[in-house]
Give the backbone structure.
Amino acid sequence: MAVIRRIRGLFGDGVLVAAVIVLTAIGVAMIYSAGQLDVPDPGVVHLWRMQLLWWGLAFVALVLVTRVQVRWFEWAAVPLYVLSILLLIATLIIGVGHGTAKGTKQWIPLGPVSFQPSQFANLATILMLGRVMGSWREPPSSVFELAKPIAVALLPMGLVLLQPDLGTALVFGAVLLATLYWGGTPVGLIFMLLSPLIALILAFQGWLFSAYMVVLIGFLYFYRSYLSEAAAVVAANLVAGTVAVPVWNHLKPYQKNRILVFLDPNIDPRGAGYHVIQSRVAIGSGGVFGKGFTQGTQKRLAFLPEQQTDFIFSVIGEEFGFLGTITVLVLFGLVLWRLARIAERVADPFAGVVVFGIFGAWFAHVLENVGMTVGVTPVTGIPLPFISYGGSFLLATYLALGVAERIASEQGGKI
Amino acid sequence: MQLFHPHARRRRALGARLVLYLGLGGLAAAFVKTQLIDYEALAQQAEANRFRPVMIPAPRGAILDRNGQIIADNIPSYAISILPASPDTLRARLMRLAPVLGLTPERVEQLLARHRQTPTLPLLISSDLTFDQISAVEERRLEFPTVFIEMRPKRRYIGGKAVAHLVGYVAEISERELAEPAFEGYEAGAIVGKAGLERQYERLLAGKPGFRFINVDARGKIVGDISPRPHVRPVPGKNLQLYLDLDLQRWAARVFPDTMRGAIVALEPGTGHVLAIYSNPSYDPNLFVNGVTSEVWNALRDDPAKPLLQRATVGLYPPGSTFKLATAAIGLELGVVDPKAYMPQPCTGGMQYGSRYFRCWDHRGHGYLNMADAIKLSCDVYFYQLGLRIGLDRLAEEGTRLGFSRKTGIDVPAERSGTFPRDAEWYRKRFGWKATAAEVLNLSIGQGPNDQTPLKMAQFYAALAADGRVRAPRLAVSSDPGEVWDLHISEENLRWLREGLRRVVQEDGTARLSALEHWDWIGKTGTAQNPHGTDHAWFVGMAGPRGGKPEIVVATIVEFGAHGSEAAQYAAKVADYYLRKRYGMPIDSVQTLRDYMLAGRPTPWARWQ
């Protein structure tokens, strides 16, 4: 009992930590399974040991972070943010690629290992956004007032896009939306912010775009937005709608292909759609109970790409079936639900925005990664938190977890 | 309004949870669809991904002769196959294999064409590899990961040249055959009977192929055991038991002169069982197994001696004098002739009919003759008169009824029907002129529009040798016995006909030099007029123990053989061999009277000398 009390003292939210530990353990097991192939891949066989090592390191980092007071995070936000921006710039200069992302610059080599600054920049950005939004006393009344948080998020996002790493860049967007939401930004403003993206998609159907513009102007009128604001939003939408088609035509065939394949993987079953099809086959053939631990045939015979990182959820689906996928989804649901609960109970604006920023980041990861394995979201190279192999990412998620735990524990008995 | 008032936070947390539930609920729905609803299809797809079916050919049934001697069986051979892939990949892989296996670019294209027929099945590259080729592939195993080698049964014809036309041969099924109803259910690459018994009894001999599955990875590389146990065992083909005597068949091939063209058919009287059926020149059917090289094929096809032709069943020759027995039989059946009586007009080397003078083959003439002597001397004038008594229409009708314009119905895929007028009207349809009554004179001595296969003549004589009835010739035991063919001649009349045949081989008969020491050997010579050169020689004879019933009928045609007495030699030697074997007598190559004389042996048994 004493031990449990001690652990409880260490972490503000024991359920959250327990759920994350279970997920990480599942991850190590799945990384082990990912190395059990009929077509031996020496690069993957022993990765689970590396992950175990990283886990130990991440756990130490977690404990250390929980010893740091929340106001120190707030204080450190600006220097950390600046540091991560510098690291991202450095990555673009001296960065290297790995595996299927060999042509990109995502990692900074550090002796025998290499680390991925974008994952740490994500946390730093969350802290920075927490600082920005934590200082708000009134809700923003126009989109112009959102300029600062947008700039804070877009800077690292742009740098990550240059690597290029579309998946991780999207997470910055998700973080921005989540923090804006928790910061008290009216939903109408968030809609205005997103409206050019809708215009971008609808631009391919002339009459649909026209109808959308009418609705948008109507919305702006009834929302009683400032004239300059409404003009800016309409202008942004018009620009987005006008450039969409020329930009699309300007895209390289493989880029178009990626988007089209997301809409229908079967248009290119041997090419870009192959991974999605094989991943669905793996998950679907798992049925209710799965094929058994390490027994997935799609995985064993190398039909799954990146089975230890991006497509590790397909291995879960194949080997543990529907019960396995639902169990893992429920665990993620638990983790995210606990994060939302902490944010809800935290009175400090900075702390609340930071916790909800972490919620946004992890939720985006889960939605995008799991969705891509069953073909409901487009394929972008994005790992699954706690489960996918990757030292930097595990460390970064545990650091974020530490921040959330510390925030929870500072609420004392209230949580 | 306070931005982070607990109420505001609760409202936002509520919104956040709603989004969370929607997101995870959406994912859960996607998994319900993928893992529960689409499970069957996707599980099947996963199996299809990892397994490639490989056909296991069934061992073909053996072909056995009447004594259980093997005529055709199987020996193990090595087959090499390659797993399916996209056409370009496959072409590249085949090109890499080409130097090792000696594949020509044409052969590669041919294989690719076949692969397009069954793109999901492994492609059989060759089923007849040498051990050196196997070793070469195995040594470079890592270069050819999608290739696998297995043992397959390969056809072997022990009978060799002697049985070539009889057994036919097997080879890979052609695209044309795949479309035929006869080959329904066959897959490309299957080895099937192409001719002869192999073709006729394909379904019986072939058995049913089995299947096994090999495990492959995403790149089509074979994973794990190359040859796991079959998932569906092949059902071996059934053995085919023949009435044929392989020793006799070989003897027929041996006695037939190498340089001559022709055929020998030996039947069992009454039953129509085929004891030997040989066509010369022949070829080695083993050359055809699993594909014949174009040089061999072209050489055989372009050979003027036409070695590919089964003369016994598709060679059509005017029956000549051998047909006189048919005229006689029809006359007896109709009751228009008394075999003991002389024909009113004596043979003076020919006879006048209408405005034409019809010659006998012997210008010296034969005088007054009864039926037996007319047969012995093959007197044309006797049969002219007999033909006139029968009449053209009746001769044509009866001849047609006896099947001279039909196939015998033997169990081989390639048989030609004989040519014989159906009635007088037939001439007009066929040649555009009306047959005169004089046409019967030609027809009655085996001339005119009358062409028969050696098998047909053998069948007719097989009826004469028994009780006037014979069944359709049969090679294999398992088949239906065949329709009965009845001459409707009394036993006494049959004896008269056989008496005529006996005299052919005695004293001054046309085939006396073919007489045999131990057996009653009787028969009829014939000369088929050949507009292209020397006449073809016929002999159709029958033999049995002295004083007993005939036990074998032999028909022989020797192209450009000049006279039937030559053909009689070979026929007699075949009959002698069969009976010696049957009655346990030592085999001797000195058989006929001519053999004895050439060997300088005494011939006290030739009493008439």
